[in-house]
């Protein structure tokens, strides 16, 4: 269980609500409330993966994720790093770690990001709007409330 929570932290960081490693468009994207394309979401996930993969071996180990969760790679946790609160947890890791090796490959990290993007993109036009993002967040809150 101790390995699962740090892995979940990285997944949360790469989803639509986070991954603030993107600096290309400071007036757009989830940090500013603008729309986000599928390609932007994937690019943000890749930048976050690169930031978290400190040993550059192509996987996110429990040690790398624990370090990122406690202080972030080389400093404070990255913006958008939401921790293991709502939206995180072992269920999220179980879905993302498809080969069940306790670490995340880039492919697993990207697949998890794109699955969440696609679930949030209600009209399937390849762009998540602020309204779609709010609706998805409300739906997740309702699901969590029903499960408690």
Automatic annotation (TrEMBL):
Pfam families: EF-hand_5, EF-hand_7. One of its GO terms (molecular function) is calcium ion binding. Residues 1-24 form the signal peptide. Residues 41-58, 118-148 have a biased composition (Basic and acidic residues). It comes from the Bacteria. CDD domains: EFh (cd00051). InterPro entries: EF-hand-dom_pair, EF_Hand_1_Ca_BS, EF_hand_dom. The keyword Signal applies. Residues 24-148 are annotated as: Disordered. Residues 40-75 form the EF-hand domain. Keywords: Signal. PROSITE patterns: EF_HAND_1 (PS00018), EF_HAND_2 (PS50222). This is EF-hand domain-containing protein.
């Amino acid at each position: 269980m101790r390995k699962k929570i740090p892995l979940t932290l990285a997944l949360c960081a790469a989803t639509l609500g986070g991954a603030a490693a993107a600096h290309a468009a400071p007036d757009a994207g989830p940090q500013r409330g603008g729309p986000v394309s599928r390609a932007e979401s994937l690019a943000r996930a890749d930048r976050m993966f690169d930031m978290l993969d400190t040993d550059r071996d192509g996987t996110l180990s429990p040690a790398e994720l624990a370090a990122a969760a406690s202080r972030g790679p080389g400093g404070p946790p990255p913006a958008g790093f939401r921790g293991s609160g709502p939206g995180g947890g072992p269920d999220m890791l179980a879905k993302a770690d498809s080969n069940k090796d306790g670490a995340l490959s880039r492919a697993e990290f990207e697949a998890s990001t794109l699955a969440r993007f696609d679930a949030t993109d209600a009209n399937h036009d390849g762009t998540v709007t602020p309204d779609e993002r709010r609706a998805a967040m409300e739906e997740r809150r309702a699901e969590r409330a029903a499960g408690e």
